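Researcher: We're teaching a course module on how sequence relates to structure. For the next exercise, students receive a sequence and then see the predicted structure as tokens, so they can try to spot secondary structure elements on their own. Here is the exercise chain.
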Amino acid sequence: MNKYFFLILLYLNLSFSQSPVFELLNSNQTGVEFNNHIEDKKEHNILLYANYYGGGGVGIADFDNDGLQDIYFGGNLVSDVIYRNLGDFKFEDKTINSGINDNGSWSSGVTIADVNNDGLVDVYVSKELYDDKPELRRNKLYINKGNFTFEESSKSWGVDVSARTRHAVFFDYNNDGHLDLYLLNQPPNPGSYSKFFGSDLTLPEYSLQLFRNTGSNSFIDVTEEAGLKRTGFPNSVVASDLNNDGLVDLYVANDFEAPDFLYFNNGDGTFSYETESSLKHTSFYSMGVDSADINNDGELDIMVVDMTAEDNFRLKSNMSGMNPSAFWKVVEDGGHFQYMFNTLQINNGDKTFSDVAQYTKTSSTDWSWANLIADFDNDGLKDIYVTNGLLRDIRNTDADKKVGEFVLKIADDYVKKNKTFDYNLWDILPLDKALELVPSVKIKNYLYKNYGDLDFKNEAKLWGVDQPSFSNGASYADLDNDGDLDLVVSNVNESAFIYKNNSRNNFLRLKLLDNSNKPVLGSKIKLYDKGEIQLFETSNVRGIYSTSEDLIHFGLGNKNKIDSLIITWPNSLKTKLYNIDANQVLKINSNSAKDFKKIKNNNKLFFEESRTKINYTHIENSFDDFEKQVLLPHKLSQLGPALAVADVNGDDLEDVFIGSASGKTSKLFLQSFNGEFLESQNDIWNRHKVLEDIDAIFLDFDNDGDNDLYVVSGGNEFSPNSSTYLDRLYVNDGKGNFKFQRELLPNLYESGSVVRPYDFDGDGDLDLFIGSRMIPWNYPEPATSYLLINHNGSYTKYKDPNNSFTDLGLVTDAVWSDYDNDGDKDLFVVGEWMPLTLIKNNDGNLSKEKLNDSCDEKFGWWYSIEAGDFNNDGQEDLVLGNLGKNYKYQANDEEPFEVFYDDFDDNGSKDIVLAYYNYGIQFPLRGFSCSSQQVPELKNKFQKYDLFASLDVKDVYGEVNLDNALRLHANTFKSVVLINDNSSFESIDLPYQAQFSSINDFLIDDYNNDGNKDILMAGNLFTSEVETTRNDASYGLILTGNGDGTFKAMSRKETGFYAPSDAKKLHLINLKDEQGIIVGNNNDLIQYFKRIE
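Model: And here is the predicted structure for the students to work with:
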């Protein structure tokens, strides 16, 4: 009996644990029948208005203060509807007699807040569309009179604006206790057949607007004096304190070529535009935006959604790709770097952000609208809900062409038949037939569960929210007061979704109050428990078009009590609470706040930057690598600068050589006795300014007691086998004067990457490993590297009897290391499409050997390698810098990232085919347009984008052709440390913060003086092809060693190290009275950091 009872219990527990988090309730159950029905008509349709299928918003608030959250839906062609929450997911339509009027206008955004401080929340509805009917575009302000009655008062309050407002946000920008209003005004949103199509949409008259609340039932326009007079294509906004200074800032998500607007509040009634200084890049078609602390570090992060599909077919059929010239025009016109992906901008706590959308796998959610960041399963980690879908795929390339041809034929037939050009297109065009040519496909919304450490997975199906739809505005609230967040979603041509949340984890909720009903928006609440932190900031609108509940919600997992809460009110006073029980709603009044003394931050930094120490800016020459090879994954002509440090003039002070790009002159800086750097007057470098310096090293190659200089020439600007790729040797006279001696080197015509000296044959002089980066204009053909033997100050090629260096690969870095403790150093080499490659030194005889561990099979895009003893066992370990996990390209053993290289169209030049996996099938990475640019016969062969999008890589290029091509692969992009265990390596991933970008260089030292080796790193890759978001999330990083081969990531706030550029080189340098680090940045300033002991 007990046995069967146990089995039944087990079954019930399993069933319970597998039940979806959300349950979709039907309208018969809820009474919510709102359907945002859209129909194309000749007076207004998708061909006239590009945002015709954009949908409407959802507003959630307790309109009657009965403790239950009510719902307001904005209607496009249908009327707005307001529902009262009766409890138990029953709702009553209260629109009739509410004062919410329908004058045929088009509602987009719904913004809810108490604008007159009377304790009742009011509603501001944004209106747009109707180019020829400005009266229908006037926004509405519904003042709440209680008992679900409202008075439309926009005119008397001065905010009956008719400027095509997509959404609005209330926030108290000047902390005067009254909510101000910021309007997202749009220019005309023309479809292909609008009279505004092709007109200037950036006119000042289309600017967004800020209205200050006077406190006397009126607003006044303060846009210009606030510094916010700027035109864009705004879709959404969040008002949050993004730099943690106690003032509410603004982030505006702009569609098209306008950059997103990040405004920091100056506290004096003005704002500063900081997009370019704070964000490395933004989304291109920015749609919804939300801010929240998604990684529980106490800083508010920002997520913006775009329109790129995750599915290969929809990606290639609906998005024609980014044209390089168009991309760079946007940049040059002030639009900043924009890419067609979602962005998840992690706040670095220093007014800068790092986009980790690719790392979190949240970058591609199709044509997205709302994004909501909240803890939907109450586990203490905030999740992400994204709505998407468009009634018709108007960006389907083939369909767009068909519609154009159809319209042209209709017009042409009419003119031929009636012998006149005098006609109204909408009178003769059968609109239904034209739009039948455009696909209409419902798609599933996304819900990303947060598993911690920025590990997200789309669990929409498991959580019960994967119904195909055309979903737009969305909001969250605890509709049944059971302690979890439910969802309300507005759909086009379908009833709204009401999702009941069935989470069972513990929670804590707060309702903030003020005796004078002053706004509490902008309050920040921090929850502390056992060393963990959660942050929630009260903000007005989230996602797109919509307003979620105004309560604070924390998920607690299985915690029954938390240690403390700190509430920071808008006036900067604080309320502190301790030992709080879970599973309750706390009502906290602002009169509990006190002025607590600020705790001084006594954290000791590791470094301090001196921006004027070395006065040099590396400037790249202009060269378009893609003209030589259209489908290159990234440029190869921007790999400098070279950087070398040594005492060159015998004064016991270290000097610095900085190698330049082609067309610029390299520089030697001599250190003075006061620690300053002065440029050497030696002009020998000028004669070689046409060359591209990639690496350099000072060494005493001739054993005369001074430091000579070897410079590696490289780049991709010059034809293969050009003399411009010859390396250089400059001989020092002992006083810092150098003489170029070409005759001391053999002729090596490869484009180089690295020089690493070591006396491998033990004869007392320094030999040189010269790594070759590429064969110019022939990526990814493996290049031959070289070992140069030093014969009494003259170099010759190592004979290489084992062919260890022939076709070695696309080498990026190398290190000599006695990993096997046999008394001589062996050579480890890394590169693109390469494994860690060991060239074993057997008494001066070099041969490539396997490591006979997992490292042999780990092919990556390795950019750096360094040796150090990271676990204090006396054996040298290795650290390897890879592309990182925050890039469009992903790879693993089962689904590697690959490249095929051959002349696929027999035109005499070889072609690059990058291939990736999508849902288990290998496809060409690039789309139809750029692929046919490289292989023109594809355009004739396939003709349609839809057809190309449906084909795998074998279908496109032919299985036999691919089999005959050079084929390289990468199966990992993770940066790792390799722990040496008696000549066998154990691979340990570097902390996730080190995976956000490519790592180009390391410096190993004990930076915190704890006896363990630490790792300082810098990187990025700014030269990706324009359809791939550039690798720019790194700001430099220090990993402090734990002494066992594991590391802890330290932020800039903790270390003072800040290298945000395309950092290629790091070098230690000793000054007279200090030690420092030089950062060699490509196309940017050279940085110097003083080490703080």
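Model: If you want an answer key for the exercise: The longest strand covers residues 826-834. Residues 6-17 have pLDDT under 50 and may be disordered.
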